[in-house]
Amino acid sequence: MVAYTFDNLPGSEEDIDFSDLERKFAVPEQDETLENVVVVDNLPIIDQGKIEKLTGALQKNVFKNAGKFKANGVHMPLADEGKTKGYAFIEFETAQQAQAAVRLGNGFPLERSRRLQVNPFMDVERYTEVEDEYRAPPAEPFIDHGHLKSWLGDEFARDQFATHVGNNVAVYWNETAQPAELITARDNWTGTRVQWSPLGSYMCTFHRPGLALWGGPEFKKLMRVVHPFITHAEFSPSEQYLVTFSSEPISTEAVDKMLGAEEQHQNPFTADDEGHSVCIWNVRTGTLMRSFALPMNKDGTPVKTTWPQFKWSPSEKYFARMTHGSSISIYEAPSMALLDKKSMKVAGIQDFSWCPRVLEDTRTGAARPEMLAYWTPEEGNLPARVTVMAVPSREVVRTKNLFSVFSASLHWHPSGKMMCVRVQRYTKSKKSRFTNLEIFRTGERDVPVDVVELTDSAVAFDWEPTCDNYRFAILHTDDPTPPPTNANGIAMSAVKTNVSFYAFERKGKLVKKEGYALLKTLPNKTTTSLKWSPHGRHIVLATMRTVTTCTLEFYDADFDQTAATKSGNPGDAISLLESAEHYNITELEWDPSGRYVVTSASAWRQLADTGYILWDFKGQQLQKIDIEDFKQFLWRPRPQSLLSEEQKRTIRKDLKSYSRAFDEQDERRLHAADAELMSQRRRLVSEWETWRTQVAELLAAETDKALADGYKLPIAADNEDFV
Fold first, then answer.
1. What is the dihedral of CA 52, 55, 56, 58, to 10 degrees?
2. What is the pLDDT of residue 80?
């Protein structure tokens, strides 16, 4: 300010220069909005003296990954009695941190029965400015994609399958006596491969920008998942959630660039997703539920991981992943929050698996807690251990100590009432290995464990899906060392193996001690794969992915009941129905009905003789399709039957009458196809004869005109015998 005297006083206040004072006492401009503030509701009501402790808990446990609170940035209003009102205003340093706080904190289980509600503070202002008069939002146009289960209503109860050949993907109706009926086919439908969802509602195609889901009668696009360079996808059991994985960590800037300026609004990722590789999506809405980074070691290197990254409980209430050697992290859905806000430390953990069904209490009929099993190896003086625990309580249901363990694998029966732990053990000399099967009867009280001891090593195990006697087949050999393979994973030689069948026997007049008994052993095979029919009874033994051998053997486990009754050994009913070969076979898959089997040779593993063969369950070849650059054959899965066990038993009793009706229907369809073929041939002959008549008449007319004009025909033209 200019120094004033009585000689130079300003004429008015407006003439005074306050610029120096304004600079000295300037107040920083405040933001016009409070986008960096959130409102946290459903907090516990506490005394004023505990506010600081609750603030620290919120920062450490709830909003740790969102950002730091501003200094004095937490305000909890107090009631007249000096207690808080159960909500708080929290100010973050940036609006982006506040957005992350809403995403991470909303629905967070602060206590077992208390979930937080977190909303942006600006929403309060927006809601107060809502007009008093309701205005209906514009109705979005309904897009009819058709019924997602429409294929189940096929009048002939046919199954569908998809093929991937070269750049073409096609979907067909399966036929037996005639070529498959094409439903749709498109070039460049997928970038890498095709995959069905577990209940068959969706077909997935993989592309550079992400993944697309297709469905309905016309296979329209239902949803697009933006996740660049996606390599793996896995659905939850009921198809409510989808887990995707990309080897390229997420970069929001790269996704914006890939989508382009006009579609950047479709970028589902925020700054909190940066560097993550695994995403979980809601299939029905396409919403990104949460993203996860890959587990890292202390030195910054990735922890050993396997796919699927997450395994789902049968109810889809929980999903979990393992950090190899250290812990299991169990999350809740749909909140995507960590159960009890912490991972479960399990030193040395090697593998885990959920029970595939929610079991019922045998006494009350009430649903039991879901179960999860895992195993840990020996460490020092501590033995290896298999543990079955309940979720969410984490209560241990059953444990079993194991010794001299080399490796183990978990195999749940589809009913969830049995679990086999295939344990590879060292002999006393440590020079060779053998296998024990530890079978947990998880459907019974106290979970008794049966042990099946083998003298050699089991290299494959497969439960029969039916539950009558919990039968299973194992592939075992004296030499468990895999043979050398080429670059495509094809073995250069076959290993001699044995196949054995076991079944559970209940205590009775003829059985003094209940447990598992050997039914039958098939020695001196070269089998590499066991595949039971989805409905049990029939099994295929296949030698796949080997250069020297390519055999198929179709067995019926209940064929010769007369021999079984006569000898008293149920294993004598197991009979070979047919032997066959498929050169260069790489894959084998049963159809959902258990009536057909497809073996295929994929160009991803073989360069020559690619294609597929359709067999019936008895081993009779129905169709052989040789296709160059054939890649995939995938049966479309079916959901579980809605029929009760009583209804199924009634159908089995009347199976002969149903069979006659189906045979007559097949006969009519075959005759109809033959009639249609004959009709088409007659139509073509008629069209040909009509065309010949028209051409002959035209030629005669032109000849008569030429003769009238004085044209002389060549000698040969007048000679009817000219050839």
1. 160
2. 82
Return the closest-CA partner of residue 544 out of 594, 591, 498, 582.
Answer: 582
Neighbours of 102 (CB within 10 A): 17
Find the range with the poorest average confidence among 2-6, 359-363, 392-396, 610-614: 2-6
Q: CA 241, CA 223: separation in Å to the nearest integer?
A: 13
525-552: average pLDDT = 93
Tens of pLDDT, residue by residue over 573-614, are 999 999 999 999 999 999 999 999 999 999 999 888 899 999
Q: How many residues does the chain have?
A: 723
What are phi and psi for residue 481, nearest 5 degrees?
A: -70, 120
Q: Describe the strand order of the beta sheet including 457-463 as a list of residue ranges.
A: 457-463, 472-477, 497-505, 515-525
Task: Supply 692's token pair.
Answer: 């010949």
Tens digits of per-residue pLDDT, 378-396?
A: 998 899 999 999 999 999 9
Contact predicate 294/256, CB 8 Å: no
Q: Between β-strands 311-312 and 405-412, what pairing exists: parallel, antiparallel or unpaired?
A: unpaired
Q: Is 425 helix (H, G, I), strand (E, B) or coil?
A: strand
Question: Based on the number of CB atoms within 10 Å of its own CB, is 676 exposed (0-12), middle (13-18) or buried (19 or more)?
Answer: exposed
Q: What is the CA radius of gyration of the chain?
A: 36
Measured between its terminal Cα atoms, the distance across the chain in Å is: 124
Say if residues 422 and 435 touch (Cβ distance below 8 Å): yes
Are the beta carbons of 468 and 503 closer than 8 angstroms? no
**Whole-angstrom Cα distance, residue 561 to residue 574?**
9
The span from the CA of 322 to the CA of 350, in Å, is 8
Whether the CB-CB separation of 128 and 111 falls below 8 Å is answered with no
